[in-house]
Please model this.
Amino acid sequence: MQQGSGRVSAHRDDEMKHQVQGLLRSGHPTRTEEWNDPEPAAEDDPPIAGGPVAPGRAPAGIETVRFELARYLGRTSFPAGPRELRGLLRAGHAPDTLVEPLERLPSKARYASVQELAVAVVSGPEKNA
Model:
């Protein structure tokens, strides 16, 4: 038994364990009330079922790549070149699939916004040279 003070009593803790027991065993909500289930994803939410968004994958459009880049880069990150932006993405623990396309961009290029960077990443280095 745990010693010390907890946020809930032992009785309440057992009650909470009993409430989620069906969910843990079945892997899906077991309640009959729909209002109590979590909401499904919205239509305009970016896809996350396949892992992190990667510019090389087919469904990754400019909007999706821009959204993912903006999650890790702030407005103060610009203007900057690919090398500085890669450093900022790595410092922000961005997934490698988002950082690696910046390695293929021209090293002398400068980007004024996340939109310009997303267009360059999606279009590829051959169009940016």
Notes: The chain has a mean pLDDT of 78. The helical segments are 10-26, 62-72, 82-91, 96-103, 114-123, 125-128. The first helix runs from residue 10 to 26. The two ends are 66 Å apart (CA to CA).
